Amino acid sequence: LTITLGLAACGSGGGIDGGDGDDIDVTSADTVWRLAFNQTEEHPQYLAAVELGEALYEATDGRYGIEVYANELLGTQADVVNNVSEGSVEMMYIGGPVMESFNEDFIVFNLPYMFASQEAQAGVFADTEVTGDLFASIEESKGITVLAALFAGVRNVYNAERPVVEPEDLDGLKLRVQQSDSQVRMIELMGGVASPMGQGEVYTALQSGVLDGAENNETVYNALNHDEVAEYYSYTRHLMIPDYLLMNTDILADMSDEDREAFQALIPDLVESANTGFLEFIDESIAASEEAGAQFNDDVNVEAFRERVTPLVEESINNPVRQDLFDAVQQYNEQFPAGS
Ligand code: GCU
Question: In this prediction, does ipTM exceed 0.95?
């Protein structure tokens, strides 16, 4: 209880200007949900969640509001997802690989070089015939509803030692990965040494030399100051994995039909706002990292990395559910090939 009260002062809070000049104090809502986030307050997903909270407050005449807790304040994604399952935290953003601990079939969307383009990925996640059963599986088993899947950039490797061109350049480098077995296996196949951990510990581990590097999109690289301590960023383009917006299923079900429909009608705006903002955020992040002295290297043998990780793809597509998901992704890849 003490912790909860202590943290209550740290969320996105009240008095936010909704853009129309009126201050909306979402914390004055009858019910205030907490949304856990592991990135900064500048991140477009944070801003989109704050907008969602304000729009929800207005749409429900103050019956509901959302307070967004940034910077991993409520815990690592791997920890918080259990709280969302129990209902002690109502909502969160989570990286795809962390979902694998609940249903391993989620792995299909987290495999290296899986989506040919952002459009292909968006097509898959807009198609409820593809995702419906997978998402329903964790409603039933874990009490978690997937409200949305978001674009979360393309991930590349970075380290303090050297630009990476070939898999051999990762030899002996200890790289942080997200908390999931598939991510460990991926980095090992790519040629590095994998170290899974939550986002919040990475900077210190890089700074102290416990880690040589990590893999992530440009926004994390800059916003969390990894560019200061790992100056070589190399475009392996090995992952395009979604972030999901999750909610406790019972809490959603407890709303009146009218309020729930009003809430769900606001989700497409969140997706649009977060995804559009993300593209701009990437450009700003690259410029800021270059300013800080980081070196971006696009001279990477991507084909060599792609070949290295093929075993992970092959061993992961090992049941009919995953095969169907995989085939569906390929259809969207054909429709929206790279560079489309
Ligand atoms: C990205 C992603 C997050 C993820 C993070 C990480 O920021 O959007 O969901 O948690 O990377 O590597 O931990």
Answer: yes
* Ligand 1 shell residues, CB under 6 Å: 38-39, 77, 95, 152, 178, 199, 216, 220, 243
pLDDT digits (tens, 9 = 90+) for 166-197: 999 999 999 999 999 999 999 999 999 999 99
Confidence band, pLDDT 50/70/90 cuts, at residue 24: confident
Instruction: In whole angstroms, give the CA distance from residue 97 to residue 101.
Output: 8
Atom 9 of ligand 1: nearest residue by CA position: 95
Residue nearest atom 7 in ligand 1 by C-alpha distance: 220
Q: Which atom belonging to ligand 1 lies closest to the Cα atom of 77?
A: 10
| Ligand 1 centroid – CA 211 distance (Å) | 17
Q: What is the separation of C-alpha 35 from the centre of its chain, rounded to a whole number of angstroms?
A: 14
How far apart (Å, rounded) are the C-alpha atoms in residues 252 and 248? 6
Complete domains list, the chain, with CATH? 2-152+241-282 (3.40.190.170), 155-240+289-335 (3.40.190.170)
Kindly give the distance from the C-alpha atom of residue 297 to the centroid of ligand 1, in angstroms, as a whole number: 21
H helix or E strand, kind and range, residue 32 = strand 31-36
